[in-house]
Amino acid sequence: MLLDVRDLHVEFRTREGVARAVNGVSYAVDEGETLAVLGESGSGKSVTAQAVMGILDVPPGRITGGRVLFRGRDLLTLKDEERRRVRGAEMAMIFQDALSALNPVLTVGDQLGEMFVVHRGMSKKDARARAVELMVRVGIPAAAQRVRDYPHQFSGGMRQRIMIAMALALQPALIIADEPTTALDVTVQAQIMDLLAELQREYRMGLVLITHDLGVVADVADRIAVMYAGRIVESAPVHDLYKAPAHPYTRGLLDSIPRLDRKGRELSAIKGLPPNLMDIPPGCAFHPRCPMARDVCLTDVPPLYEVSGDRGSACHFWRECLHGRS
Ligand code: SF4
Ligand code: MG
């Protein structure tokens, strides 16, 4: 297994109290596989990713338990320097906002080239040539000229392509993309998602795709892990999950997006708001919003029940949900 996150716990200590952002998350991604991690903001999906990348080790964020195995080694126990090396060369992250992730005072050619100079010991000239190649690969027109431009001179979609090029530069085994298309308009979103999927296949990378939008992941993900209040509430192969969700929250998400196969059905949003992480409801954290909630849901935290060999649901009544009786 390329990445194997086990029972991860993260909390944030603030003056108002302790926010339990991640409460026992486990997921795994293999080489050449795409895992979509889906959830509303505050569900813990980004925080989990930041813990994996090792960019969370600053207060007030604190990893309070679990393991992050990368090719069998627990990243949480590595020395800082070793951790940095793994992060630089073997895993990379793509963020929502390329403009703030890229350095505004360096040309994109210098930023891309620097990766090769620093990590591969290339000459500036060779690094520049590699930068242009990468820009061509991610679909930037007139790359040989544009390599001299600054980030703000590119459109949002083109900037996102440059960030993808940065992430790809050292051919990492794993890429974590956190809402990589959220800031873009719909047509550009689809293009960027296609590019990511294509590169993922070409380089056989593991890809963790974090999103709040179930609509964008259907065609690119192999598996989906749905997060709510810092836990995974459903984990399944993407087609199984679309066909029949085994958790009421997943069903709510599915019912709130337009789907070609469900034409004419009314869209409905999930009522209510995600919980305050300093005060997560007892029992099933979803119970205040769940149309299927019963007494037991108010007191007993549902474990991740095994629905089938490669599927799990953290709902006491997953069977009824799966079979559409609610
Ligand atoms: Fe709803 Fe209960 Fe299932 Fe939670 S455990 S999702 S409240 S039915
Ligand atoms: Mg986020």
Written overview of the protein:
The chain has 326 residues and is of the alpha/beta class. The protein has a single domain, classed as P-loop containing nucleotide triphosphate hydrolases (Rossmann fold, 3-Layer(aba) Sandwich), CATH 3.40.50.300. The protein is 35% helix and 24% strand. The strands form two sheets. The chain has an eight-stranded mixed beta sheet, with helices on both faces. A four-stranded antiparallel beta sheet has the order 2-1-4-5, covered by helices on one side. Helix 4 crosses helix 5, helix 5 crosses helix 7 and helix 7 packs parallel to helix 8. Iron/sulfur cluster binds next to loops.
What is the strand and helix layout of this fold?
Layout: E1 3-14, E2 17-29, E3 34-38, H1 45-53, E4 61-70, E5 73-74, H2 80-89, E6 91-94, H3 98-101, H4 108-120, H5 124-137, H6 143-146, H7 156-168, E7 174-178, H8 186-203, E8 206-211, H9 214-217, E9 223-228, E10 231-237, H10 238-243, H11 248-255, H12 295-299, E11 305-308, E12 311-313, H13 318-322
The structure holds iron/sulfur cluster and magnesium ion (MG).
The number of strands is 12
Helix-residue proportion:
25-40%
Q: What is the CATH topology descriptor? A: Rossmann fold
What's the story with the biggest beta sheet?
A: 8 strands, mixed
Structural class assignment: alpha/beta
> In CATH, what is the class?
Alpha Beta
**Bound chemical compounds:** iron/sulfur cluster, magnesium ion
Strand content of the residues, in percent? 15-25%
- pLDDT < 50 stretches: none
Number of domains: 1
Rounded mean pLDDT is 92
SS field, number of helical segments: 13
